[in-house]
Amino acid sequence: MPSATLRGVRRLLIALVVIAVLVLGGVLAGVVIAKPLLEERLAERIGNEVGAPVEVQMDLDRVPGGLAGHVGDVLITAPRIEREGIELVDLEVTIDEADVAMLELARGTAEVSFDAVRFQVGMREEEIQAYVAERLAAAGVPGAQALQVRVTPDPEGVYATIPGIAQVRLLVRVVGADRVRLEVQGRGAAAETLRQVLPAAIDVGPLPLDLRLTGITYGEGVVFVQGARGPGTETFE
According to the model, what pLDDT value does residue 2 have? Predict the structure, then answer.
């Protein structure tokens, strides 16, 4: 009799294990299916907002976090976008510590909560050079097409030189939620000429996810424009 009882318990345990495996397999399959759906929703919305195709990278298939809808950091990238005739490069939008409502996602709507969103895009020195040269030429400034522009992190700034005219330093400033300005430094004929031809602001927006520009950093040959927003929830349909 005891051996029969043991056999019954053993069969029950085996049955429970099989059921658990089947349930877990079904949940994992749901997670695997959910990932491309979420990526598609994010890519479509953010791509439309920035005006360029984007790529989405995430870790929704992690276990056990993915089972509960915890995605972690989501990285959205685009190699280039264009704003006011300037090609901006290496766009990155990072959604920090994202969570997705799995039930809503199963219904086709991605409701994503997050701790923060960060933004960065690069403005290369050759693009700044072409942008400034075009405006100098339109104003009839001699030697405009021979303009040379250099971006350096130390001393930080954008350095513009027209042959035969003194070098002028410019700084890129954030002047609104989605705009920047090339701010001419110093005095002299070259500086005044640049002030006259450069616009009051350059639109970097529209920015995705209600981001706002927050600052500027300088690399070798590139200016990085950065933005951010705090915690929140966004719905991607």
Answer: 54
